[in-house]
């Protein structure tokens, strides 16, 4: 395949650069380990390698911290309360990411992700460099090597989709080497990450014991390889100077390979009545079947728990942290017809807007009159059955220009990270990549590569249309309607399916950036549902009147397609450049 010819030249350049210079990958002279004690002892070598697993680079992988969804709050999926994200939703709405420019530690970037990424790369490189000294078994050696390649590729993937192309280091750098290194392109770095993940897949096992869940597997490596190639093929990467524009074929074949290995080793989609357990509670056979790589975290009910901050106030004793956008709500189709709600044939009733929707809707979003933890949610702006009308639970309170914590700003709450039992602790599972995303990655890439969604590449297990329907059918949704089987129409439905299936899993911001559509007005608008309690009538059969209203339009300029880099790091020298516009 052409990708291997491309990679040969990219790796050659990257390897030469990494041998001559350094950037945030320096071996500290005070590292404090003795070579013989660590790398000539099999137990100590493994413990050193385990730093990659037990010291996660993303904050959400650390126990009892915030769930997924921070990045959704600065996308067009949801809006947060003040200080819920380090660059709050209010600041992000104005395009103000400058807190990251000072120290790079804004919570919106999952706290110290920048420094943790480079530390992970350094640990991985140290392990790879010293693997020939490992005195243990071949199988244990392979686990160490596969884990190191996996986390180097994974770290670069997370780095690039936040900050863009970076120098790619293949060895830990000594403290006296030059630090001023030119950056590779976004696409080049993603391709190198994909190559590392491919290497990881050669050493890792496809299935591991449940007790090792949270460690990488062959399937996770292949899944992330496919994801990195999809990012490398997408519009934002392909529009950069010198980029290759024909990588969709490689991305589709990589996703197909990941699907085959996953399915052949027992991974798959769980039934819809188990969908809740993918993310919550302890049904091991559910989350280990569908989640290819993720982490567990125990959340307490009490006031210091992020789970508590996600809950609605009042009946569920919460503080409210995030409110879904009405435009996200609109993405959930009608179940009976499988059509978008703006299709006249869909069966949608704007005055009974939550009836008959995609079953994933109630699993993901809390709506007015929905029963949650045995309590009916009362979410409305005002009660017009009383004279004078009284305020309801959507009232906005402003303090010093910021929306206060308390009630939803849009008429909705997040349900994906909510449990089913009041006043109970909750074990949560945070998927970084899961089986449904493999099908969606393949559907997207195959449609772009081979012209029409029905086109079947004989080397692949599914067509793009079939792969999309696997995800829809699990959700008890009909097959995609035939009217959407042109290349362009199917592209939009795949993007919609990703938004629905993966909502609040920190994909949407990166999706609209890689597709280069985040600056478009329709992807900057935040809408709310104005809800008034009224008398039951033919017009308002539920006793509520629903009126969508524009709440906010966010600022998103070309510079926002990449985060700003810490000033200290761009001051290293003239070759390591700040991202454009910052």
From TrEMBL:
PROSITE patterns (UniProt xref): PROKAR_LIPOPROTEIN
Protein location: Cell outer membrane
Family annotation (Gene3D superfamilies): 1.25.40.390
An example Gene Ontology CC term for this record: cell outer membrane
Keywords (A to Z) from UniProt: Cell outer membrane, Membrane, Signal
Domain of life per record: Bacteria
Coiled coil: none
Domain SusD-like N-terminal stretches: 109-227
Domain RagB/SusD: start-end pairs: 297-582
One Pfam short name: SusD-like_3
UniProt keyword Disulfide bond, yes or no: no
Main location: membrane
InterPro entries: SusD-like_N (IPR033985), SusD_RagB_dom (IPR012944), TPR-like_helical_dom_sf (IPR011990)
Family: Belongs to the SusD family.
Name of the protein in question: RagB/SusD family nutrient uptake outer membrane protein
Organism: Gaoshiqia sediminis
């Amino acid at each position: 395949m052409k990708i291997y010819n491309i990679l040969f030249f990219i790796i050659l350049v990257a390897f030469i650069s990494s041998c001559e210079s350094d950037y945030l990958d320096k071996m500290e002279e005070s590292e404090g380990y003795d070579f013989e004690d660590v790398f000539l002892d099999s137990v100590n070598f493994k413990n050193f390698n385990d730093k990659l697993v037990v010291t996660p680079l993303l904050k959400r992988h650390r126990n009892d911290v915030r769930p997924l969804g921070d990045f959704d709050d600065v996308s067009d999926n949801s809006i947060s309360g003040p200080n819920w994200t380090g660059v709050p939703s209010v600041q992000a709405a104005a395009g103000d990411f400058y807190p990251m420019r000072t120290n790079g530690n804004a919570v919106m970037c999952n706290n110290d992700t920048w420094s943790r990424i480079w530390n992970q790369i350094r640990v991985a490189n140290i392990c790879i460099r010293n693997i020939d000294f490992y005195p243990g078994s071949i199988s244990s050696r392979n686990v160490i090597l596969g884990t190191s390649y996996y986390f180097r590729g994974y770290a670069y993937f997370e780095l690039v989709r936040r900050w863009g192309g970076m120098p790619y280091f293949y060895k830990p750098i000594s403290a006296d080497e030059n630090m001023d290194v030119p950056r590779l392109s976004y696409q080049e770095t993603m391709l190198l990450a994909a190559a590392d993940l491919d290497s990881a897949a050669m050493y890792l096992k496809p299935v591991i014991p449940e007790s090792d869940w949270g460690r990488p597997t062959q399937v996770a490596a292949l899944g992330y390889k496919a994801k990195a190639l999809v990012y490398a093929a997408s519009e934002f990467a392909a529009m950069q100077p010198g980029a290759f524009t024909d990588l969709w074929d490689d991305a589709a074949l990589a996703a197909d390979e990941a699907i085959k290995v996953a399915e052949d080793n027992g991974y798959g989609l769980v039934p819809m009545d188990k969908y809740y357990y993918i993310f919550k509670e302890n049904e091991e056979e559910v989350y280990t079947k569908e989640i290819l790589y993720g982490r567990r975290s125990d959340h307490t009910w009490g006031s210091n728990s992020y789970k508590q901050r996600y809950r609605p106030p009042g009946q569920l004793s919460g503080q409210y942290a995030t409110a879904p956008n009405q435009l996200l709500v609109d993405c959930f189709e009608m179940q009976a017809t499988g059509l978008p709600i703006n299709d006249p044939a869909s069966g949608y009733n704007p005055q009974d807007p939550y009836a008959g929707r995609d079953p994933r809707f109630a699993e993901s979003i809390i709506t007015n009159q929905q029963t949650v933890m045995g309590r009916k949610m009362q979410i409305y702006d005002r009660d017009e059955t009383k004279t004078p009308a009284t305020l309801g639970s959507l009232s906005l309170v402003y303090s010093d220009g910021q929306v206060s914590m308390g009630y939803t700003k849009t008429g909705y709450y997040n349900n994906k990270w909510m449990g089913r039992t009041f006043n109970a602790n909750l074990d949560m599972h945070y998927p970084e990549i899961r089986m449904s995303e493999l099908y969606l990655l393949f559907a997207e890439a195959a449609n772009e590569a081979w012209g029409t969604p029905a086109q079947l590449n004989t080397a692949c297990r599914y067509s793009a249309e079939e792969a999309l329907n696997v995800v829809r059918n699990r959700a008890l949704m009909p097959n995609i309607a035939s009217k959407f089987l042109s290349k362009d129409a199917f592209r939009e439905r795949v993007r919609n399916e990703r938004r629905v299936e993966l909502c609040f899993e920190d994909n949407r911001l990166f999706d609209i950036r890689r597709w280069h559509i985040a600056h478009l007005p329709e992807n900057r608008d935040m809408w709310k549902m104005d809800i008034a309690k009224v008398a039951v009538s033919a017009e308002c059969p539920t006793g509520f009147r629903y009126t969508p209203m524009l709440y906010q339009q966010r600022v998103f300029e070309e510079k926002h397609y990449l985060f700003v880099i810490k000033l200290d790091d761009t001051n290293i020298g003239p070759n390591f450049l700040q991202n454009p516009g910052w």
